[in-house]
Amino acid sequence: MLSIIICSRKPLLDKLLSTNIEATIGVAYELIFIDNSKNIYSIYSAYNEGIDKSRFPFLCFVHDDVKFNTPEWGLKVINHLKNENIGLVGLAGGDAMLRIPFDYGALNRRMNIIHVDKTGNNPIEYVRMPIDFQGNSHPVLLLDGVMLCGRKNLFDKIRFDELIGGFHAYDYDISIQSFLAGFCNLVMYDIEVEHFSKGRMDAEYFRKIKYIYEKWESILPVFERNISTDEQKKLLPKLEIQRAKRLLKWLVRSGMPLNETANYMSTFIRKTGNKRAIFILNFIRIKILFIYIISTIRNKNIN
Question: Which residues share a beta bridge with 96?
Answer without folding.
Answer: 223
